[in-house]
Fold each of these.
Amino acid sequence: MPGELPHPDRSEIQLTDVLFALSDPERLAIARQLVDGPLDMAACHATDPDLPKSTKSHFMKVLREAGVIRNEPNGRRRMLTLRRDDLDARFPGLLESVLRG
Amino acid sequence: MPGELPHPDRSEIQLTDVLFALSDPERLAIARQLVDGPLDMAACHATDPDLPKSTKSHFMKVLREAGVIRNEPNGRRRMLTLRRDDLDARFPGLLESVLRG
DNA sequence: TCTGTGGTTCGAGAATCATCGAACTGTTGG
DNA sequence: CCAACAGTTCGATGATTCTCGAACCACAGA
């Protein structure tokens, strides 16, 4: 398990990738839960709790590769962060409208 | 070819469906071209001009079923309209941020 | 009415995406 | 050092989605 996973640079974030990542209800729920601040992956219970961990990990991968979240090692855990600054800079107003509800 | 195609009511439009519909570059380009007003489908050259018409029709179907556009008969043609009012009412700010560029 | 035009629908194949178990990997605590 | 924990990666299978040709359909014009 590589400690550091690849993240797209701010300038590389594509709008269509972001929209696709958020077009799934479970992934959208994850993003919404991160609005209030970073969260350990284990503490992220936005998804079905008895979902296999490989599936949950896959959700995170899609969100990470799209540039929606950061996923960084934190001890033996993973810290998830919404890339609010990057997304606001690149697509002003998008997050606010999508995560509202 | 049924003259009137089914469109979701404003209250039925789902955010995830809208995001998915706009998560494809070609479909996003179509939506962007409709910002300036309705357009006959034949006049909509946002997509590759030598794209098969069945494929183009499929793009329109995805956008229509998601509630992004209206597709209404207009003589022997089809008039495409961005559902700006409905989308703005349901997801304020979303369209503005997505279609900017 | 017959024909052309603009567009939808159907069906099939290719491509992509989702889901999950199993194996693997850093990290911490004992 | 060793065992357990948290999470990733791999591989396979199934489900969606894309793409396109062919058939079909409605309207407008000659």
Amino acid sequence: MRETANALARPYHHGDLSRALVQAGRRILESEGPTALSLRAVAREAGVSPAAPYHHFKDKCELLEAVAKEGWRELGAAIAKARATAPDAPGAITNIGVAYVCFARENPALYRTMYKSACDRETMGDHTKDADSGFSHVQEAIIEAGADGSNSRELALATIAAWCAAHGVAEMAGFKEFESLKAEMGGEEPFVRALLEHVGVFARKPRRAAAE
Amino acid sequence: MRETANALARPYHHGDLSRALVQAGRRILESEGPTALSLRAVAREAGVSPAAPYHHFKDKCELLEAVAKEGWRELGAAIAKARATAPDAPGAITNIGVAYVCFARENPALYRTMYKSACDRETMGDHTKDADSGFSHVQEAIIEAGADGSNSRELALATIAAWCAAHGVAEMAGFKEFESLKAEMGGEEPFVRALLEHVGVFARKPRRAAAE
DNA sequence: GCATCTATCTGAACGATGTCAACATAATCT
DNA sequence: AGATTATGTTGACATCGTTCAGATAGATGC
């Protein structure tokens, strides 16, 4: 039974602690940064004891991975949205790249957590395999943009290169040494776009059409 | 006074603790990974008490930055070496990119520490400003490769794009999902090279010479 | 309805960590 | 030599990740 009618009074059993913990982690990440993201802080934020999370996650690491998974889902959604917006426009793939970088720049702590998790395990996990994943969207967009879908190796390389470049830009776009250049170019988005356009798949084909 | 004639007996004052701590951090990073890199572990490795480092570094963070700086120096050296090897070869810049990625892949823990430090402060610090830094070498190599040195913005963008791409490739080249592709291509280096060649500055100009 | 089983949460504890203050020792300066 | 400064050590504190024994509650079988 509840001890009081207080709206904040939780029953002994939380009901959906698992989800609540992930959301709490997300919140802490955004508001206080990665250093503040301790298991105990997450438990506090969710209003439970420090030991409670261990009934839902084996590790702090496993909690972080759950938070990261949530991030990958959102990234995938952002990419899907960017792709759906103007699928036939000339720079459609570039828009996807820009959306990727924007997501990372708007959620820096989340993004770093996502990649730390991936790098530690040396795999991006299931995030790439889902049909609706960002990776799949990128690959399909590259095909739609006229890449030779039959040369599977070249297609894979182009997709991976695009992903690598976007990741690199995402992590470095915030560096202070670029501030004046960004200002010159009219903000961060044009800067990011220009950077991405140095990569094959993102490249604007300026005067004439594509190579062959 | 020394308590024994033991060869390991150090005097009360270490002599060059600052350097010893950085080296100890480096060693721990390589042999036991980033999670094992605690201030106390570094002090233990150097044979001093846990509080001793505070006379040389304000923070754990500051120690890490010193380790990172050491890494940047080595990266710069690796790039300089790659550049000096065959400065006039057609793919000279690409060799630099490959050297960059190889360094990162051979010292993964160091490399991650370097970038974590940079990302936390949102700057690469002095590492880019030194005349002998890797960044400067890249920029010069790009000019030598025939870029329009007078268009400073485009030159800067090309350099930054190259750096971003190399960073992205460096962090992702180890992912397990690429293993079969790497095997197909004859190892990690050809794979890395192929990825980099999707980026403008690194691009092989296949049949005819450069654009104009 | 009631007893039991299982999932979930709490409390107290452990060792490790980053950091600090008080003190000890050595090198340096006068 | 004596004073000052740089560099160590010891011991303490709060916090952290983690574990374990016990409390509580929802589910299940009778």
